[in-house]
Amino acid sequence: MVDQRFQILFYLIAAELVAKITFDFKGEGESKKYVRKFFAELCSDNTRSSLGKSFSRTQSGPLSWQEVVDLLYKIRCDVVHEGNYASFHLPITGDEFQQLTTVGNESFIVSVTIQQLRRMILEGAVLASERLL
Question: What does pTM read for this prediction?
Answer without folding.
Answer: 0.86
